[in-house]
Amino acid sequence: MNHNLQPKIKLNNGLLIPQLGLGVWKTSLNETRQMVKDALENDYVLIDTAKQYGNEEAVGRGIQEGLAATNRRRNSVFLTTKIFNGDQGNYDKLRTAFNEQLQKLHTNYVDLLLLHWPVNDKYNESWRALQDIYADGQAKAIGVCNFNVERMMDLLDHAKVAPAVNQIEFNPLIHQPEIVDFCREKGIQLEAWSPLGNGRLLSNTTITKIAEHHHKTPAQVILRWEVQQGFIILSKTTHPQRMRENAKIFDFELSADEMEQINQLDQEKHAIWYDKFKWSGNPDGVDDYIAKPGAF
């Protein structure tokens, strides 16, 4: 058992979530199934997917195979998925679509269910459905992704249950301080997607010097910088060796000076962003796109 992966964070409803997980965006079905199985075998227990990724069924298969290989039970895995933008805004449609997601994932609940984007004029009605999904036990916690301060304030004004998580793009090149500070003030846990900035910083001189000092890889330094700020981080790799490397970030600490050196790299630039999305319902079909990663 790799104890490096044991740190957990308590959400605002008391649920414990692992601080390091595996994301599966933009991977084929066979890759997804194998990487999820490999992740469980390497003691990753937080798996993050979404309907839009088009690989929920592969995640479900990978979890089943990983559980069988490790003699674990379903409750040892923290599974996150997200509501597709095209399913938002209609209570009945959303709940029907989510039940179909559960079937693909081969489970009767998820540990965390997120709204993938704050679609204007739809996210409050969508949140009403998520609150009932939570009340019915089909999700142990509910949250959002990519919400800024304005939309989070609006959601909180209408919500009976506050989001447990806001999953945002966060890495040394983009810090989004306004929403980070707001969520911390409201007790909403922050989760980082694209924590390595799409690999753009792995050869950065500041990062590599700090990595050499600690005898760590640049990726490990970046992930450690995020962990020390209290973020949950979702790294993505199809290679078991890199999974193991990414997990070895809890046995060293960055100094205040090193943290500040990395802070100075901020450019507030997104690595990946839907420029046409603009928070609306369906510009140019962006809202209706689901990845088609191919057959098994």
From TrEMBL:
Keywords: NADP, Oxidoreductase. SUPFAM superfamilies: NAD(P)-linked oxidoreductase. CDD domains: AKR_AKR1-5-like. PROSITE patterns: ALDOKETO_REDUCTASE_2. Residues 20-266 form the NADP-dependent oxidoreductase domain. Belongs to the aldo/keto reductase family. This is Aldo/keto reductase. It comes from Limosilactobacillus walteri. The lineage of its organism: Bacteria, Bacillati, Bacillota, Bacilli, Lactobacillales.
